[in-house]
Amino acid sequence: MRHPARLGIAALALSLTAVGCSSGDGGTSDGAAAAARTTTVTSCGKKLSFEKPPQRAVALDQSSTEVLLALGLEKRMAGTSNLKTKIAPEYRAAYDKVDVLSPKILTGEQLRAATPDFTLGGFTDYFTKDRVGTREELAELGLPSFVSAVDCPKQNAAGGGAKSPFELLFQDYTDLGRIFGVEERARQLVKRQRAVLAEAARTKPDVKGEPSVVWVYSVYGDTPYVAGRSAIPSEMSRLVGARNAFDDVDEDWPQVTWEEVAKRKPDFIVVGDLSERGKPGDSAEDKLKAIRANPVMARLPAVEEKRFVEIPGTEMDPSVRASKALPRLVAGMKDLGYVR
Which domain holds residue 264? Predict the structure, then answer.
């Protein structure tokens, strides 16, 4: 923890009702008008209403932290947590101004001690009784919780039609821009990231066939977690002319077995590197050892021929870094001979 939490649990209710109308961060050109309006968004099936922009946001993971920093909201943050790797260089100076409540997953006690008026996370898994508490429990305290739309695509389908993971990520930016009164910043962020995707589509590599890929994010014990249909990597695969081998699984990061992976016979395997997080199975090296140690996986041509691509795990998350994985993926496929 870089700075100790300075406010007690008893101050939570007071902080939720004493939020100022302007943070002084230049987030709105007409702060008073922005503060007077009621803003309503729906996050993962729950309606959230704000009379004033939040002033004490707590991010439950690095992805959410970097989204807030990309929107220039470091002065509106009461804390951050769960750092998986080094903060991106472009956000480092802003990040250094934010209290680190915990380098690991935040507990309910740590969250409440920070007296937030808003909390957000990339995944619903952070909002459980054994972590910060359920979203219902937090709502009873008057604390609104926001979850990335990427983690709940069904609740965020427009008119019954499915949205791509990147479109859901852009929805996050737009909704957060409305909540914090920084709509123009959000529009510019969406514009910049759309340009990256447009460039990927314009320069789509000449891929031989449609190689199948398995994205391995985590390995706990002997259990791999891979990208399913609603995860950002599934869309990345499509954008570069590959096919996610677990695209038929209607989840973002399903828990599977190595036997299931082997049955899909992927042409190549992407392994996420989270070595700086420091848990067993986090590093790309640990994942490769687990893959080679499994007798079924060891016989796969992709494993025997070392058809692996390493990508930072944070770039597989729903975050401002996701678009950076595209050129890495293309470069890896080129090295493996899948790009002419």
Answer: 212-335
